[in-house]
Design goal:
Helix 2 (84-95) packs parallel to helix 3 and helix 3 (110-116) runs parallel beside helix 5. The protein is of the alpha/beta class. A nine-stranded mixed β-sheet has the order 3-1-2-4-5-6-7-8-9, with helices on one face. It is globular. Helix 3 links the parallel strand 5 and strand 6. The protein is built from eight helices and nine strands. The chain has a single domain (4-231), classed as Aldolase class I (TIM Barrel, Alpha-Beta Barrel).
Length: 234
């Protein structure tokens, strides 16, 4: 029996976050998430359409022919790895379409990552400190996840969203976690885009201090905002 996934939207745009900002991507946004971050700007439990792997393959292939070429197909959400059974069925054929498979993930589901990793080209992993999720920390899952992606030799980077209330001790722990796996993994510090209850971006002094602190642990540190929000595109 074919797996079914709930998809919120499928659309072409530019990648607005991380080290591949500005690249043309085809986005597939999956429904639902296992975290509830205070700064989340996505209605990940909004209206959705159900797709089989064959239906999603046909729609993405049609969009690639019409709107491409694309640098990558970006699996986003919500948390796409919640749909790992569907992805196991979809990705072998999707990878044959040409663009790399780009996984945007909160990095908390290493068992699901292990299943789909053979077909993933790029892993864009968020680190979610407890002050962001307003819940217990997920440090152990983060470390297992990051190490698995790194040891598989994937094109990998880590992103941390920063607010004015970001806890410095949590940032230091995140920096040490990345360094313990591989200090060469690129780290993107992303100032929050004001949304919902989160209205205050970090001040310049905070950004400078956190950037300097990150560089003590990580070799490649970049401060990159959400460019798609600045441009007013999806």
């Amino acid at each position: 029996m074919s797996e079914i996934a709930r998809i919120i939207e499928i659309f072409p745009s530019i990648q607005g976050e991380g080290v591949y900002v500005g690249q043309p991507h085809l986005f597939v946004r999956f429904w639902n998430c296992n975290l509830a971050c205070a700064y989340c700007d996505t209605d990940y439990k909004g209206p959705y359409q159900e797709y089989s792997a064959q239906q999603l393959l046909a729609e993405t292939q049609a969009l690639m022919s019409k709107e491409g070429p694309f640098h990558a197909m970006s699996l986003t959400g919500g948390e796409p790895l919640l749909w790992w059974k569907f992805l196991k069925e979809f990705l072998p054929s999707a990878k044959q379409l040409g663009p790399q498979i780009y996984l945007e993930t909160n990095g908390t589901l290493p068992d699901a990552l292990r299943v789909v990793l053979p077909w993933i080209g790029i892993v864009a992993m968020d680190i979610k400190p407890p002050s962001a999720t307003r819940d217990q920390g997920v440090w152990e899952s983060h470390e297992v996840f990051l190490r698995m992606a790194a040891e598989a030799g994937k094109d990998l980077f880590v992103k941390i969203v920063l607010t004015k209330e970001t806890v410095e001790d949590e940032l230091e722990r995140a920096f040490r976690l990345i360094s313990a796996v591989d200090r060469r993994i690129p780290l993107v510090l992303q100032p929050v885009t004001p949304w919902g209850a989160v209205l205050d971006k970090p001040e310049q002094e905070q950004l400078n201090r956190w950037r300097v602190s990150a560089r003590r642990h990580c070799a490649d540190v970049r401060v990159i905002p959400q460019v798609h929000r600045i441009l007013g595109v999806r």
